[in-house]
Amino acid sequence: MEGSEVVEPYVGMEFESEDDAKRFYNNYAQRVGFVVRIMQRRRSEVDGRTLARRLGCNKQGFSPNVKGKMGPGKKPRPNVREGCKATILFKMEKSGKWVVTRFVKEHNHPSVATAHAYTMVRDKDKKIQELTQELLRQDQLCADYRERLLNLLATIEKEADHLSSRVLSVVESVRKAEAEAFMMSCTDSLKM
Prior knowledge:
Layout (H helix, E strand, L loop, with lengths): L13 E2 L2 H15 L3 E8 L6 E8 L29 E6 L5 E7 L11 H76 L1
Antiparallel strand pairs: 1-5, 2-3, 3-4, 4-5
């Protein structure tokens, strides 16, 4: 990265897609030394596709005053927004290309060209992906366990019905045997 020239965005600059435009601005930001924040997106009322996207420095705007909202054991976060005006606006043309229609270069804070902030963001994204995958895996396990449990309950119910009929059969056989034994004892008593 060092030693290579930083290509600066300009009004009228064209990109094949929204992703290309965002990728370009993220790379530019990394080289210049700031972190990009997604500011705004305008969508079509007809089909919901994105028509315009505004990105800016993560220090753009001001953080709301959150004093008094801190609960017990909560530490206040440092205020990272400083009212920076650096921003870029991309719009999709009728041709389908994305064009820079506004670009403000100036930052009101020092820039630090470092990959550290991006590494942190990438690490967080990676962690989110890992946790999402783990959540999906756990959901699948839960679904598998639920299916197994339902199958087991169905088998138990079938076996219980079968067992009930077998128990009834045994009880009936015991009653018959008792009745026969009683009849035999009565017959033996009469013979004496």
